[in-house]
Structures are given as structure tokens and as C-alpha cells.
Amino acid sequence: MAALHHTQPSFNNQQLGHTSHKHGMVVEEIHGLIRVYTDGRVERPPIIPCTLPSNTDDIASRDFVLGRFTNLWVRIYAPRRPGNSQLPLLIYFHGGGFCVGSAAWTCYHEFLTTLASKANCVLVSVSYRLAPENRLPAAYDDGLSVLTWVKRVWSEGCSEQRWWLSQCKLSTVFIVGDSAGANIAYNVAIRLGSCGSLRPLNMKGLILIQPFFGAEERTPSERLASATATRTSSSALTLAASDAYWRLSLPRGTNRDHPWCNPLSAGASALLGLQVPSVMVCVSELDILKDRTLGFCVALAETGRAVETVISKGVGHAFQILHSSALSRTRTQELMSHIKLFIHK
């Protein structure tokens, strides 16, 4: 699996719009994370290290390639010592604005290893195609491909997958993600109604952690972020970075009112297509996305769907992945406890 984790060169000192690089001008950049040139070249410096799958005392993890041409792959986490009862299955999508990130990132590997142990579940972490090389809906397509793959390996009785499949209660599947991964989870759930039967998989719920949605109209928390225009230690997402991610990931010629970005652009009735009975939405108090997420929760509840909202006080975007303060660690443990209760109802 090491061959899957491509290392990009570190950035030089080139500035946006300058032409001193052999690949032309820099047409888009999110500082330290991604740089895009006029000839289409994309650079992603290895700012966050990757790690190979590993075993802890109670959780084993392994990687599997699903698509040789698309490089779609998953990392699966399951108990090393199966218990007497089958466990919920969580399909997890990482964050990164659709443009960066990997299931191999150390921060995700550590978070999901702990979550699998604390929440007593089996996890399939998806490494989907990234924008701008693969703009949306590529990531949504990959999400559905993973669900179809799980159904296929179960129906075929694939011996290579028995170590984790035998522990899954496939009638209790949850689609989960954080940030852009939560957006993917939501849009995969919306598409379930048109993708054919996935039996024996039964989608019991959706868990959206700081979901990455947007719109042309700013919310108060976004306007506040724009006014301060600084990245604080409490949040990993700025408004400028958010806008850049959308420019790089949405279909060309669209704006932030595209329904993949703004699920309320056509009114709350669009939420009626959500193919899950219950939803848990996790909000960070200091996240620039806070107000938009809370508005989404209200609209979702108005459709009659069961919505559980969890607010993490005193922390910002991606605190559970990128921050290591004592408060962040406490809030991460609380978040995992909420997830455990939700999936074992």
C-alpha cells in the first residue's frame, strides 16, 4: 500500500499569479496544502505524514484497493478478537476540502483506530479521488462504489474479507464523515435512492461531523471569520480556504449555491431525498461553519427526520483530527461517546 501514498514536492517561494515556474502561473493556492498551476499541475506538500496499517492490542487495520484505475482504496478497522455479537459498520470519509487528505494520514489513522475501539464498531475508511484532478461528483461516485463493493464481497463470500465482514451487522450501517467527508457522506446518502438495492446493507443513520457546506450568502459566523481574517489555534478552516476549496472542487462554471455545496439552495424540500432514518450532526462552537450547520439541522428537522445535534464547546473545525490540546482531547472523547450511543441505539 505504500505505493498509493504519493509524495508531492515542497512549495518554493512562488506567489499566486507569478510565471517563474516551468508549469506556468499559480492559479489557485491554499497555503501549505495545495498549489495549482495553469498547465494543470497540482502540488500537495506532505504537510501531514502518512502511516501504514497497523495493529493495536484490540484493533487490526488493513488496506484494500478497490479501483486500480481510479486508485480508490479503503483502510478497514476491526477488533482483533471478535466478540459474541455483531457490530455496527461505519463507512467513513475523511476531510480536506475534497482536495487534500488520505485515509493513510496519521491523524485519521489514530482517530479511527481509537474510534473503532471506543465505539465498538467496524470501520471502512475511504480514500476517494481528490479535486481538482477529479472534481465532484467523483468523490460521491467513489462513496457509492465502496458500498457496492461491501455488498459484493459479502455476497461472494470473499475469504480475504471474512476477518472483518464476519463481525459486521450489515443491517446496521452508518455513513460517516468529517468536514468535506461529511459533505460526501450526505450526498452519498441522498443518492442511495437511485443506486439500486444494496441488500443486505441497511443504512441506519448518517453522522456528519462539522459538515462542509456553503452558499453565496454568508452566515454570521462566516462574516465574523472574514472580519478577523486570521487563523486561530481553535479552528483549522478559514473563509478564504473554504472558498478556494469550492472553486477547486465544484463543476466548472458553478458557484457556491450549487446543491452539492448548498443543500438548501432549492429549499428544505430537497432534504426529503435523504435515504436514512436518523441523523447526528456534530457542530464545533468556534467553527466558521457553525451557523450554516445549525441552520441545516433546523431545516432537516422540519422534514420530520430524527436529528441529534451535538455541540462541542470551545473548539473549532477539525479539533478531533488536528488539535492536541487538553480541551480538544476531552471534546474528542466526548464526541466518540456520542457516536457510540448513536450507533448502538
From TrEMBL:
Annotated GO MF terms: hydrolase activity
InterPro entries listed in its UniProt record: AB_hydrolase_3, AB_hydrolase_fold, Carboxylest/Gibb_receptor
Gene3D superfamilies (UniProt xref): alpha/beta hydrolase (3.40.50.1820)
Pfam families named in the record: Abhydrolase_3
Residue ranges constituting the Alpha/beta hydrolase fold-3 domain according to the UniProt record: 90-320
Family the entry assigns: Belongs to the 'GDXG' lipolytic enzyme family.
Name of the protein: Alpha/beta hydrolase fold-3 domain-containing protein
Species per Swiss-Prot/TrEMBL record: Trapa incisa
